[in-house]
């Protein structure tokens, strides 16, 4: 298991204000995602949660600091090796709905396996089986040959989660995965993530949904780019 | 067996309307170059063919024929015509300094003939002296034409063994000539003896007003090749000064006329191609841009699940390449088909000689046109693919925030 760790990372954006033209969306911080742990970060909209998550995912270069996945310094890598690392080790569930409209549910889920040559080609059947299994777990097995436009919001989200899990990543990053879901779907999704943490993965949920707090092993809040650990139960 | 999913193919097949529109755009692109370059090529081929077929330095014709533009109409546009001058012209011309080869020709036009619904030009030549028609005829007909035997141009609906009747006289078709793309394709050829018989029959039938021409004492045109060491202009001037009631015409001048018109038409066609291309490429680039903007989020998702920039570029290029290859193949085929089918129409409406290259030449042109169009289409989409692959994934994934 590789550990994902931000060392002294921060991120500035340009925005015209009276005093200064730049501001920190995420202020300088060390942030680590330990394996086997479900980490939940909550905070108001605009507090910098997605910015932090994207930096950790290798999609947004920090203004300062490093992001390490095991020994790999993500932002010192070229695009190709960085992409390969993300493909193999990081399962990202982006905010909102993110299906590829031309592909069926099953094809969407299997897509990460087709981007690069797999180490052993015989794993194709394993991947197929794994996809079936994930669809079973997320309750969308009946929908495998259906196109995304026929799916509900909850089903699409579950598909997106299954897609993030197909490569059996070490780290799972999810941006508001329950934001637009009803209670039933929220329950299903959170149990799925919790199960992944129990299997030894580092799970990172970014949310402003209080229902997630009960599932958290570690909790943080974020306000105007500053991260604080939450020690007590609410 | 690795798992194979083809997002590019799926994107195309699951959006048939959009795909069809893109295919049509690249079809237009390829159609215009294919048809355009074939037309330009056909015109050039026609000119070259005319140049070789005319094959003489100077044509001496009755003065009226050159001024009434009968000659040009006949040679350049294939309007059947006839004109005569006294046969003594030949002797006068051949007596001049600098005249090398010399041969007589006799023209007759038919009102209509059994082969054709339109008037046909009959050209008679002197087998012993002819140096323009026989060399060309040789590839389709070996040996000498007998009395009342004729050769037919490639465009006429008559075949070896057929009998054509002109002014009540039967002529047997000995051979059909190869295509030249010029007025010669709609003409009928006979030797001197035969055409004189035909002129006599025509005179008897009083279909044309020949006045009191004596078939044995007339000639339509005297062809001259200038002897070595003399300039064409010199000989031409000599003839014009010393031989009365005739006009010596330099064939090169007539060809230059055609060549000028051809350049004009070529320029127009090239201009059209350029315009259509600029338009189609802009529309194509815009269409790719719009489509990729619409799918920006999908590309960002691909990046999020670990696709490299190269993968995204390749995927977009593969998609556009598929569109281009289908569109361009159809465009080239359509371009070929239209030019071949309408070559007669093109010829008659441009009033210029028109000779398409052979099958291999046309296929070569079509393949080149396809390649150029595919490259252009791909380049126009490559710009967009590169732009998309460099987009800020994080910004797009934040999306509706
Ligand atoms: N690419 C960007 N350019 C400028 N400002 C940005 C950019 N991305 C995020 N921001 C700003 O950074 C702040 C934090 O954004 P974000 O991380 O998306 O917040 P959250 O996910 O907590 O709602 C917001 O004020 C947002 O407007
Ligand atoms: Mg956010």
Could you please describe the fold and organization of this structure?
The complex is a heterodimer of chains A (234) and B (401). Chain A is an alpha/beta fold and 234 residues long. Chain A has one domain: 3-Layer(aba) Sandwich (Rossmann fold). Chain A contains 6 helices and 10 strands. In chain A, strands 6-7-8-3-9-10 form a 6-stranded mixed β-sheet, with helices on both faces. Chain A has a 4-stranded antiparallel β-sheet with strand order 2-1-4-5. In chain A, helix 4 packs antiparallel against helix 5. Chain A is globular. The model of chain A has no long low-confidence stretch (mean pLDDT 91). Chain B is of the alpha+beta class and 401 residues long. Chain B folds into 2 domains: 183 residues, no CATH class; 196 residues, no CATH class. Chain B is built from 14 helices and 11 strands. In chain B, strand 6 and strand 7 form a beta hairpin. The longest helix of chain B is centred in the C-terminal third of the chain and has 44 residues. Chain B is elongated and about 100 Å long. The mean pLDDT of chain B is 87. At the A-B interface, helix 1, helix 2, helix 3 and helix 4 of A face helix 1, helix 10, helix 11 and helix 14 of B. The complex binds adenosine-5'-diphosphate (ADP) and magnesium ion. Adenosine-5'-diphosphate (ADP) sits at the interface of chains A and B.
Query: How many angstroms separate the termini of chain B?
Result: 41 Å
* SSE string of chain A: EEEHEEHEHHHEHEEE
What overall form of chain B do the CA principal axes indicate? elongated
What's the total helix number of chain B? 14
Ligand kinds:
adenosine-5'-diphosphate, magnesium ion
Q: Give the terminus-to-terminus CA distance of chain A.
A: 31 Å
User: What is the strand content of chain A?
Assistant: 25-35%
**Oligomerization state:** heterodimer
Number of helices of chain A: 6
Spatial shape of chain A: globular
Order of helices and strands of chain B: HHEHHEHEEHEEEEHEEHEHHHHHH
Number of domains of chain B: 2
Secondary structure class of chain A reads alpha/beta
Mean pLDDT of chain A: 91
